[in-house]
Design a protein that fits this description.
InterPro entries: AAA+_ATPase, AAA_22, Cdc6_C, ORC1/CDC6, P-loop_NTPase, WH-like_DNA-bd_sf, WH_DNA-bd_sf. The chain has a 5-stranded parallel beta sheet, sandwiched between helices. It contains 16 helices and 8 strands.
């Protein structure tokens, strides 16, 4: 068995909850106020906004865990990305029963209405941007009008586009969430986060300062840094040096990408692979080239390729994951086109 410098893998996991969230005291205080209001029976809605890797989900999980006498419903919109799927999850949470598939939307709505009339309830919709790619507006409008004295909604949102621009005016006006912005972490803060996780997970004196500095100066998303650090730690036997983390960047990033795509289809993965292969030849590529490359990968694996429209939807989801960046061009013979590039690739080696 190959030796490595890891003594405990748990602090290197994304779902690990540290005792202290770095540089989020103000936000933590405001979230605690929100939780106290909901616990006291004062209905309120919240929008937690920040780019990927700013700690939205971690911070919200940490605060809502303190809720007392409140029915908490947590839904991942990355996994449950349609109104129907989310209503089913909420219905099962408030009843404590699994429901059969095939029920009409109105039946779920009626159940939720009945079960939240007397009980203070908080519905958390994590990564709402994936739901908004589909029929999320209808769901938000329904929730905002359902037992407003008893039912509160908390949303986490990562997109750069204003949330109010993605929902109808009537939805935003009835939901009217209190907005809390989380700024991206600085280089120093990323270093602090990774240093604390390393202290808990790695053997003493096994991580060189220069190695950790290189990671924190290269990326702004601590989640990527955790995967990068973990992969590097698995490949060394005594100590992690700067050269080790440089050599393991691609492997660490791939590990992060695979985790991000865990709940998505095989076609999402093939699409990302197509972009990755095209990016070896040029930094930016077109959506047309991506689709051709994707078709070739499908043919090689004896899979039927999806339609242009489905692929367009998949590309939007990869954007929401911040795995790719797209620049849109309108007009011309084909109407709308996209210039596509991989995210997190400007790494000095």
């Amino acid at each position: 068995m190959k030796l490595n410098v890891i003594k405990d893998t748990e602090p290197l996991q994304l779902d690990y909850r540290p005792e202290v969230v770095v540089n989020r005291k103000k936000e933590y205080r405001l979230l605690n106020s929100f939780v106290e209001m909901v616990s006291a029976g004062e209905s309120q809605n919240l929008l937690l906004h920040g780019s990927r890797g700013t700690g939205k989900t971690l911070l919200l999980r940490k605060t809502v865990s303190q809720l007392e006498s409140v029915n908490l419903v947590w839904v991942s919109c990355r996994v449950h990305d349609t109104q129907y799927k989310v209503l089913k999850q909420i219905s099962e949470a408030v009843t404590g029963k699994n429901t059969k598939t095939g029920l009409h939307t109105s039946e779920y709505q009626r159940t939720i209405q009945e079960r939240t009339t007397q009980v203070q309830t908080l519905v958390v919709l994590d990564e709402i941007e994936f739901l908004l790619l589909n029929n999320g507006n209808d769901l938000l409008y329904y929730l905002s009008r359902t037992n407003p004295d008893k039912l509160s909604v908390a949303l986490t949102y990562s997109s750069s586009q204003e949330f109010s621009e993605l929902v109808e005016e009537r939805t935003y006006s009835t939901l009217y969430p209190e907005t809390l912005e989380l700024e991206p972490y600085s280089t120093e803060e990323v270093y602090q986060i990774l240093a604390e996780r390393a202290r808990l997970s790695l053997k003493p004196r096994s991580l060189q300062h220069e190695a950790l500095s290189y990671i924190s100066e290269t990326i702004r998303n601590p989640a990527i840094g955790l995967y990068w650090l973990k992969i590097t730690a698995e490949h060394v036997e005594d100590a992690i040096h700067a050269e080790d983390v440089k050599a393991c960047y691609e492997s660490g990033l791939q590990s992060y990408v695979y985790e991000q795509l865990e709940h998505f289809s095989e076609h999402h993965k093939l699409l990302y692979q197509a972009i990755e292969e095209l990016s070896k030849e040029e930094t930016t590529t077109s959506s047309g080239k991506v689709y051709k490359q994707y078709q070739q990968l499908c043919k090689a694996q004896s899979k039927k390729p999806l339609s242009d429209r489905r692929i367009s939807d998949h590309l939007k989801q990869l954007e929401k994951l911040d795995l790719i960046q797209a620049k849109y061009h309108y007009g011309g013979r084909k109407g709308k086109s996209r210039e596509i590039r991989l995210s997190n690739r400007s790494v000095p080696l």
